[in-house]
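Support request, please re-run this one:
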Amino acid sequence: MNIIKETYSVFKQHIILIFLITISVWLPVNLLINYLVDYPMTYASSSNIMTILSNLGVFFRPISSGAILYLVYKSKIGEEVSYSQAMKIGFRKWLPLIIASIIPTIIIGLTSILLFIPGIYFAIKYSFIDSLVVIEDKHFDTPRQDSFELTTWKEWEILGTTALFLVINYLLALGLGHGIAYVLEFLNIHIVGFERILFYSLTNIIVDVQFSMLTISLFLIYWNKKKELMEMESFEVLLCDDDNLNESDEENPNE
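Re-run finished. Output below.
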């Protein structure tokens, strides 16, 4: 798939900035997550802890997503972006991204509970929400409505791309977790306390950096769809101009 090649190309081009953005947002979050895993609150059940951990990811991910989307967007229009500029946009779009995702999250959650397939369908149809908020400055429920329309005829491409990068992300996380544990056991190295938390937080960053590829790929699908629509509009304008010209010739045959 061309979108996969383009994603890897964009990722390699901006890998340093993507890494800096990811570590800035996710290192503090990962430190907190790994601390809660190693030192769970005595009054909290394991299910409560997992809920807290998942909510942390949902709450902070818009910062890195917004920054990376802005970076890739500027790259597509031939402009350079600094780390500070990207992070500034990430924080500026943090709240709008959270607000725009409230209704879609509820819809996806409810449909996933009732029937799994409709949940996947709505998740696909709302895949462009982040791009619409960051790039087009859409707010509130407008990105949800626009995303539902824009994803038309792109559903299978979104599904295939998302599935591929999620599988890669899962395998990478699984491989790192088991691989590091095996190496440490083989070398008889025991990491405890804060060193253990820091070590695993840094390894989690690798998974988070790879996850940015999904953000990039969804933006590229969105970008290509917008280009297709612009080309169609330009073609329709040309057809309209051509029809007007023909009508003018018919009205003035002697000129």
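Residues 2-90+155-244 form one domain. The two ends are 53 Å apart (CA to CA).
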